[in-house]
Amino acid sequence: SAAEKGGFDWFMRKEIYEQPKAVADTLLGRHDTEGRLTLDEIRISEAELRRIDKIVIVACGTASYAGMVAKYAIEHWTRIPCEVELASEFRYRDPIVGPTTLVVAISQSGETADTLMAIRHAREQQARVLAVCNTNGSTIPRESDAVIYTRAGPEIGVASTKGFLTQVVACYLLGLYLAQVRGTKFGDEIATVMAELATMPDAISRVLEDMDPVLKLASDFVDEPSVLFLGRHVGYPVALEGALKLKELAYIHAEGFAAGELKHGPIALIEDGLPVFVVIPPRGRDLLHDKVLSNLQEIRARGARTIVLAEADDHEVLPYADVLVPLPRVSTLLQPLVATVPLQVFACELATQKGHDVDQPRNLAKSVTVE
Ligand code: AGP
């Protein structure tokens, strides 16, 4: 009913707007005032956590993209090698896992069969399994050694939104906790990252207040047959997520690419008028921003119609942006928490304009309980 949707037309739209709170709730009580992590729910001893020499994240769909984002942060903070694998691929290839492997299973529902089978396999190989899950008492956390609950509240829309953002946050808490326990060189910066994470609910709210350009854009896309998404580093999984949302909801061909991979093939797809969303990294000391800026210039020169997600005052992108979607200034690793939001809003709105059932897209189920 309309009341259940809190006055929104779809659960999905309601859930998009709940993201500031979902992120705040997921952070709540998990650190002290000095910015040290207190993840009591991780019932794996510190001695054991110090012995871990490999992390394998298993998940499906949007949850796997949260895992891809997390890999960048976890490896940077902990220096533990971290792989991300689609749960449906994991156990059928005889993966190398053992007692010193931490397998992290990310699942909003906690009932995804592919992910469940992956953790059963991991446990048979004596690996420690930690679930990142949104559903209390569901099967995946019950069959894991420990669980970090995302506190997004019930996610009803088939397309995952607040699930994704809170999965990224929970994985970041895990990464920071591991860095803390293991005393990595990064240790001093933990409090700095925690302080910035605490500002994210506000940053996400600011993005949501400024969605008019994105809503307007959706009405121009009703007859568009294909849309591309480009990103690099943590912006790459954001691009994949933007594309998945369009497939699921708008039923159009959409593909995400790593921006640096363009010249190895996908740039051949660029032709006059092809819409391409580009996620521009924040300006910083590394070269990431400039690299993606030059990719933007390349596709624009070949006729692409560009929708550019960049820091609000990033004047360098302006000459190459047909549409600019402004983002607040955040550090690179936290950018997915703001950059994903306009892509969710865009997909939700485009599907609405096309007359699709946003909450129940064709052929899909909220949780996929068969392999
Ligand atoms: C996301 O929009 C999808 N509907 C889907 O990819 C989903 O994220 C995937 O099936 C995993 O679900 P889970 O998080 O409940 O395990």
Automatic annotation (TrEMBL):
Keyword Cytoplasm: yes
UniProt keyword terms in alphabetical order: Aminotransferase, Cytoplasm, Glutamine amidotransferase, Repeat, Transferase
First-level EC class: transferase
Residue numbers annotated as active site: K366 (for fru-6p isomerization activity)
EC number: 2.6.1.16
Residue span(s) of domain SIS: 45-184, 217-361
Localization per record: Cytoplasm
Hydrolase as UniProt keyword: no
Recorded catalytic activity of this chain's protein: D-fructose 6-phosphate + L-glutamine = D-glucosamine 6-phosphate + L-glutamate
Primary subcellular site in the record, as a coarse category: cytoplasm
Top-level taxon of origin: Bacteria
Subunit structure: Homodimer.
Functional description taken from the UniProt entry: Catalyzes the first step in hexosamine metabolism, converting fructose-6P into glucosamine-6P using glutamine as a nitrogen source.
Protein name per UniProt: Glutamine--fructose-6-phosphate aminotransferase [isomerizing]
Protein encoded by which gene: glmS
Part of the full-length chain shown: 244 to 614 of 614
